[in-house]
Amino acid sequence: MRILVTGAAGFIGFHLVNYLIQRGDEVTGMDSINDYYDQNLKFSRLAQAGIQKDSIAYNTLVKSKTYQNYGFINLQLEDAENLNKLFSALQFDRVCNLAAQAGVRYSLTNPQAYINSNIIGFSNVLECCRHHEISHLAYASSSSVYGLNSKTPFSTSDNVDHPVSLYAASKKSNELMAHVYSHLFGIPSTGLRFFTVYGPWGRPDMALFLFTKAILEGKPIEVFNSGNMVRDFTYVDDIVEGVVRVIDNPPTPNSNWDSANPNPANSSAPYKVYNIGNNNPVRLMDFIEAIEQELGKKAEKQMMPIQPGDVTATYADVKDLVENLHYKPQTPIRDGIRNFISWYRKYYNV
Question: How would you class 335 by CB atoms within 10 Å of its CB: exposed for 0-12, middle for 13-18, buried for 19 or more?
Fold first, then answer.
């Protein structure tokens, strides 16, 4: 298939692109390469797939030096005119939109970045899918949409009307916008609610990266809510396997959908939402202990109050993923941490 992956220089996008290339799809990666975190890490990810930093120029398609079936373009989602030209030129079959302004805490101080990328940018993607006959749009949502919901495990049939960060609100908006386009224009769309993704080539603003870096440097780690947090940490390879199965299986209208008792996870339109999580939440203090054991070094812990926009627990119900796509994430947390730390030591030579 001809597949567009936006956010291709990002953490999940990097791993997804490599998976699709290896199985033989014609892949185009797209990314704005913004400076939300270390751009050199993004360039290093791109280089793994044969896209060299010195060959990248805005709105210019670059062919991989390693893979004949991969090309990359530096482009912003907000650039509607050039995004439309890209769709016209390459005639994609399917789109996986992973490009977004990420991070809960950053949304407190830089809200406009979330409106530009996650709302305006996503609306441009939807318009392109509408006008260029895309057979399936898969897109990143987030476990953050569950917000104040305290019923666990989180189910896609739960109400998600109480987000606690602008990031979460933007992801809920994406799901609503996608449903409109599925309903009005028949575009099959699937939202992917990711649960605390971790692993090699991960983002520097996420817990595993921050903790590993600080412990190795002998600096204290900030432990929010005094460690009374639970996260459904999900290894990146498990996430990618789930994403690929979703891409390969466009949703169809649910003929039994009841408008008098609507299930928000599906519709009379070709629309679906899945949780992709490990279904095995881990206490933050146990997570830190596993990092300490792998590093052979204790962390100096600085206990902090909970941050605005954070939630105390995430826990994914993945029943639909198992029933519909015959898949459940299963990488043990210690294996995932070991793989990350091995990558970190090698990449940073520490």
Answer: exposed
Closest by CA to 6, choosing from 128, 14, 93, 251, is 14
Instruction: Give the tens place of pLDDT for each residue, 186-230.
Output: 999 999 999 999 999 999 999 999 999 999 999 999 999 988 899
**Are the C-beta atoms of residues 37 and 15 closer than 8 Å to each other?**
no
Helix 11-23 with 39-48: angle, nearest 10 deg: 10
**Residue 185 pLDDT level (bands cut at 50, 70, 90):** very high
CA distances from 190 to 5, 141, 225, 296 (A): 14, 9, 33, 42
Rounded to an integer, what distance in angstroms lies between the CA atom of residue 332 and that of residue 278?
A: 9
Instruction: Return the residue matching tokens 């992956």.
Output: 5
Tokens of 254: 């649910």
Amino acid at 71: G
Which of 70, 146, 167, 181 is catalytic? The answer is: 167
Is 167 an annotated catalytic residue?
yes
Q: How far apart are CA 236 and CA 93, in angstroms?
A: 25
CB atoms within 10 A of CB 289: 13
Residue type, 114: Y
Say if CB 316 and CB 231 are below 8 A apart.
no
Residue 246 has pLDDT above 90, yes or no: yes
The dihedrals phi and psi of 97, each to the nearest 5 degrees, come to -95, 100
Residue 63, CB half-sphere, CA atoms under 13 Å: how many? 4
Distance CA 151, CA 59 (A): 45
Q: Which amino acid is located at 337 in the chain?
A: I
Q: Is the pTM of this model over 0.85?
A: yes
Neighbours of 78 (CB within 10 A): 15
Preceding amide of 308 cis, omega within 30: no
CA nearest neighbour of 122 among 87, 89, 97:
97
CA atoms within 13 A on the CB side of 78: 13
**Under 8 Å between Cβ of 146 and 154:** yes
